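HOLO CASE FILE
Compound: (R)-mevalonate
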Amino acid sequence: VLPKDFRKRSVRERKALIDDLLGNPSKEEGSTDYLLDLADVMVESAIGTMPVPVGVAGGFRINGREYAVPLAVEEPSVVAAATYAGRVIKSGGGFEAWSTDPVMTVQIAVADPPPGAREALTAGRRRIAESMAPALEKMTARGGGFRDLRVIELPESGLVVLELDIDTRDAMGANIVNTAGEAARGTVEELSGGTVLMAILTNASPSRRSGARFRVPVAGLGRGGRDGATMARRVVAANQFAGENFNRAVTHNKGIMNGIASLVLATGNDTRAVEAAAHAWAARSGSYGSLTTYWLEEREEGAETTEAPGGPPGLRLVGELELPMALGTVGGAASIHPTARKALDILSLGLDRRITAGELGQVAVAVGLAQNLAALLALVGEGIQGGHMRLHARRLAFQAGARGGDIEAVAREMAVLGTYNLETAGSILLSLHS
Ligand code: MEV
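Model generated. Tokens follow.
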């Protein structure tokens, strides 16, 4: 989708190129007045907005399609790492990715349920569906709507909880399912004979998941004097470390969320909902562990193709990630925020329609997995600080007053000296102009 040298162009050239590709540069995006008015309708007592850089990681190949992936994030290494790992993964044919149906669940908790409440609610399925029908009318017309219900009893509190599954199509769906849940309250009280304590969606979203898997020949993974097979084995060992140890698992998963949360933010989706669901999913066995799985496999000589997936015969590293992904591509901030709209347009490049919520989930998981691979390769290779400090140097140069081409010149000189601080950046900048 993007030219090969995209990341080497200047920021203004990159922006112009994207605006050209999209065909209709948004005037609102650059208007502080518009953004201030928008902030005022989005939150109470607004005083401004918080600009976060948006970068584009190109070259993500997912189910045979190329995606340019917009990421909104303040951490310097995230876009660079995604771009790097996206390219490595492309050498094995890219990602295979999948999404389940976009089903959200609303919970209606009933207090003081008389005996038989559970059975009455299960048997009342038709009346419960009818009570939600007006709230779900438009969604049902779009192919979504009520799907299923369960009733559970909580032994300690004595609550009976009705869970209603609702397919929300391309909407994230929080408003829709909460409205439907509240519409059902009266019917739930009549059927159960108890009192509704509350009705609210669950952000765990266990039925709405996206997953991605890659297979790469280990040959391309060698670095820092270690061959590819050794690096691949070290990646698998790093994943085992996270699988077995809580403290490491949190950081491992944080690295995955570096990619996912950045895409979620760029597209105007709810970062807290996705983060909460991800960490809960990582603990679904009862103990918190790694979200990813890695293994090595041998690709047989004469396997059906030497192209995707997995590249030529030989040893391959396989990585996989699946987690809840409650994202929307219609409604919410996506419909009013110019940057979110632009991010969705970038993701839809090459499509004759907007990207679906399921596809967006696949891209999010692929970016999370790529982010994790990049982090693990650095951690079990040369360590991450070298790369991080080289990127940090550009900020220091900026902070010291460098602009334009001076930023790179100062950063390069700091890397040569191996000293990264504001003072050094300042004296390099002075020497450039003396
Ligand atoms: C830094 O933001 C993320 C990492 O710490 C992730 C990891 O350790 O796997 C590098």
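CASE NOTES: The mean pLDDT is 94. Residues 75, 251-252, 254-255, 258, 375, 379, 384 surround (R)-mevalonate (CB under 6 Å).
CLOSED: yes
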